[in-house]
Amino acid sequence: MNTKILLQNLQSKIAISEDEFDEFVTLFQYKELQKKDVLVEEDRPNDTLYFIEKGLLFLYKTLENGEVQVIQFAKENYWMSDLYSFFTSSNALFGIQALEDCQVWSISKTNFEAICLQYPKMETLFRLNFQTAYVNTLIRVSDIYSEDAQSKYTHFLKQFPDLVQRVPQYLIASYLGILPSSLSRIRKKSKA
Fold it and tell me: What is the largest distance, in Å, between two alpha-carbon atoms of the chain?
């Protein structure tokens, strides 16, 4: 359990000293997950924000037919949560599950608010994170409605080249909104 990676992530976005970090790092909790562990359950309250030190998570929605629709992947140095539940105190719209063994840092909403009040720099950091997440969501929605399957996969490869080896093909297909068989054909055509 080493807070160095969390500190480096914060320092990549805001000017924060190790002394300042040491003042509030105890508000974060360290947690290890096994592959397939569920971190956030759909339709249950979630008051926690997560930073991924190591591993890979995915955010999903279970459809009426029981299939999983992947919304987002989050790997090392990413933040993840069901933000709807986190900010509204409502039940989570989405679940979060580990695709690999993971090491994460979590912060409760109460501690999140305390840090933001006491350290305006941290409020800036979280605002920047949420802005980036919102912009990425808009781009993703635009891609879903305007790109064909081949373009979606090409864009995915450019955005997440390392995930192709880390994520099962059926989950990539779900994320892209295409059938696994379509993704298989696209991948074969790309290799030819």
Answer: 57
Distance in angstroms (rounded) separating the CA atoms of residues 192 and 172:
20
The DSSP secondary structure of 137-178, one letter per residue, reads HHHHHHHHHH--HHHHHHHHHHH-TTHHHHS-HHHHHHHHTS
For residues 178, 182, 183, 185, the Cα torsion angle rounded to the nearest 10 degrees is: -170
Q: Are strands 57-62 and 68-74 parallel, antiparallel or unpaired?
A: antiparallel
Q: Using 50, 70 and 90 to split pLDDT, how confident is the model at 141?
A: confident
**pLDDT in the model for residue 175:** 94
Question: Which residues have a Cβ under 8 Å from the Cβ of 122 and sit 6 or more positions away?
Answer: 10, 14, 16, 24, 115, 116
Strands 57-62 and 95-98: antiparallel
Give buried/exposed letters for 41-57 (b at 16+ CB in 10 A, else e): ebeeebbbbbbbbebbb
Q: How far is CA 39 from CA 11, 28, 131, 146, in A?
A: 26, 16, 23, 32
CB 83 within 8 A of CB 132: no
